[in-house]
Amino acid sequence: MSLSSVLSADAIDSAIKDCQAPDSFCPKKFFQLCGLSKKSPQDVKKVFGILDNDASGFIEEEELKFFLQRFRPGARVLTDKETKGFLSAADDDSDGKIGAEEFQAMVLS
User: Fold this and answer.
1) Annotation-wise, does 63 bind a ligand?
2) C-alpha R_g of the chain
């Protein structure tokens, strides 16, 4: 399954363009621009599964760095500051990784 089966290519392009500059990525804004925040909890879980590159059940810091590239190959890597900010915003239980429920809560809140 690919992200384009859940989100439109145009919406993904718009979200990627909005955060091209280093340190300009805002997860909440990205989720709104790509349309993910308007999707069902089931669709958000599907997207989580795609972003969980190693299928561990969590999105770890190393996977977060390449978050934008999962949406669009060739997109930039997140900076350390953006990666840590994203992780701290979503990691409710402070275990250093984002679980499916934490991701869903962040996207849909």
Assistant:
1) yes
2) 12
The verdict on whether residue 93 carries a ligand-binding annotation is yes
pLDDT band at 45 (very low <50, low <70, confident <90, very high): very high
102 annotated among ligand-binding-site residues:
yes
Known binding residue 10? Answer is: no
User: How far is the CA of 46 from the CAs of 35, 54, 82, 99, in angstroms?
Assistant: 14, 14, 23, 13
What does DSSP assign to residue 98?
E
> pLDDT by residue (tens digit) across 97-106?
999 999 999 9
Around Cβ 16, how many Cβ atoms within 10 Å? 20
Domains defined along the chain, listed by start: 8-108 (1.10.238.10)
